[in-house]
Amino acid sequence: MNNAFNIEKLNVFYGDKPALDDVNMEISQKAVTAVIGPSGCGKSTFIRCLNRMNDLIPVFRLEGSIKFNGTDIYSKDIDVIDIRRRVGMVFQKPNPFPKSIYENTAYGLRIQGIKNKSRLDGIVEASLKKAAIWDEVKDRLHQSALSLSGGQQQRLCIARAIAVEPEIILFDEPCSALDPIATAKIEDLITKLKDDYTVVIVTHNMQQAARVSDYTGFFMMGKLHEFDITKKIFTAPSNKMTEDYITGRFG
Amino acid sequence: MNRKLLNRFYDRGFLFVGIFATSISLIFLLALLLDVIADGMGRLGWQFFANYPSRKPEEAGILSAWVGTVWVMVLTGCIAFPLGISSAIYLEEYSSKNWLTDIIEINIANLAGVPSIIYGLLGLGLFVRFLNMERSVIAGAMTLAILVLPIVILSTREAIKSIPPSIREASYALGASKWQTIRNQVLPSAMPGIMTGVILAMSRAAGETAPLITMGALTYVAFLPASPISSEFPYISIQGLFDAFTVLPIQIFNWVSRPQKGFAIDAAAGIIVLLIITFVMNAFAIYLRQKYQRKIRW
Ligand SMILES: Nc1ncnc2c1ncn2[C@@H]1O[C@H](COP(=O)(O)OP(=O)(O)OP(=O)(O)O)[C@@H](O)[C@H]1O
Ligand SMILES: [Mg+2]
Prior knowledge:
- The structure holds two protein chains of two kinds.
- By secondary structure, chain A is an alpha/beta fold.
- Chain A has a single domain (3-246), classed as Rossmann fold.
- In chain A, 36% of the residues lie in helices and 27% in strands.
- Chain A is built from ten helices and ten strands.
- Chain A has helices at 43-49, 80-86, 101-110, 117-130, 134-137, 150-163, 180-193, 206-212, 230-235, 240-246; strands at residues 3-14, 17-28, 32-36, 60-68, 71-72, 87-90, 168-172, 198-202, 215-220, 223-229.
- In chain A, helix 3 (101-110) crosses helix 4 (117-130), helix 4 (117-130) packs across helix 6 and helix 6 packs parallel to helix 7 (180-193).
- Chain A starts with a strand and ends in a 5-residue tail after the last helix.
- In chain A, 46% of the residues are buried.
- By secondary structure, chain B is mainly α.
- Chain B folds into two domains: 1-43; 45-295, MetI-like (MetI-like fold), CATH 1.10.3720.10.
- In chain B, 72% of the residues lie in helices and 0% in strands.
- In chain B, helix 3 packs across helix 10 (248-256) and helix 8 (178-207) runs antiparallel to helix 11 (261-295).
- The chains are: A alpha/beta, B mainly alpha.
- The interface between A and B is medium-sized, with 26 and 21 residues.
- Magnesium ion binds at residues 43-44, 172 of chain A.
């Protein structure tokens, strides 16, 4: 099996309000899957189901199944903390902790109880390198992460996610708060990450989806309207609505 | 008159009323302060702090009172801090929202407004009589701790609420448990706000008189509670907790009620000391809040 996630008959509700309607999708390993669609169509809801982030919302309710490497992550005996460790997430707005750059990167390891200094040092350096931010911060590891620019903060958040060695990294509009240069850096990074990780990225930027992703899913009003190889979606969509959306006729 | 003019008139009118009200309270406060300072300033000196109360006004001092105030304040803080923070964490992070927690919340808000003498009665009934603690420092501190608990709980909850959800999400997304998230992210970021609340609570406790008098704190004390540091192993002693005590406001109250003119001067000097203590504590609380508000930007 080379799917990271198998999603079947996924229905999500906030209270009585449906947010996702019968979504079926397969997310391939070591590939970038993009999720696009107009605002409010359920992209964030969908991606946050994959690491059970929605559990934090009291009115959230889910039906159907999401299998991660074959096991249903919503079954009763699943360890949520383990899922969140294996499925990392980078958010729309960079959200570093009000701590040093080093402590931000090491946080996920420290909470696992890793105390060995040289081991931490090694992972912190490797993660910052992978996130292409090492050169910019190596002389100021113990300064506050809040002193970094937005783009640097976002790469630090990626390093922080990488440090716990997840199998999947979810990105929810990671570039929407960044300028074009910082965006280019992150996009670069994402295409490199797929050598080692499965990546799912939500984006409002059609070019971005076309540039970085291998597969693209188009959501509208809680439904997955079309899901295919990115090239196909952007050159010959089979659904009229997909075409209208990616050519910018609405959304 | 047209609408615009009328609005302008109201604007001006309200401004005037506001300035008037503010200056009235300021003028009264200033007059009070000046009067007290004029009366008591001359009495402030080394002797005043080092002497026990006395029958002779010119020899009377506040040694037992200020030591008692420090004891009670610190103990009150030590009791109210863990209790208040735990309750706030429970209410803010763990309790499910149902009618029971609603009732608890409403009651905490209401408790902040209960007259302090009621707490004195509670202290008298529960600590002094029922638990047989006598009129000890610890009984007084526990009474005041209950009195200030709502302040600590409410300010801690505010501080916890002000932590942006994005920080929690970041922590959870890295595989942190709820407690790890609270312990490593929420509490450290909320700590300045919590400390501000605790200090304000302690300064409130320093000024309270009614509950302590109700529970029977002595008004004339010519000894100090046993020192918490002892010369023998284990070098700390809790004996002092069970000693009788007095505090500054009670001492002041006692002097004010004496007929001799000299005691009025002592009282004024005591008031200056009490004012300085509360002023310094409040200033420190404000400083903490300012400092961290500027430092933590999300
Ligand atoms: N916590 C919540 N409680 C109730 N309803 C919610 C909640 N979060 C999202 N919704 C609703 O679910 C629907 C999908 O929201 P979602 O955030 O998933 O959209 P989105 O596609 O990510 O939008 P955007 O592109 O603006 O980020 C919306 O109608 C939204 O109002
Ligand atoms: Mg979204």
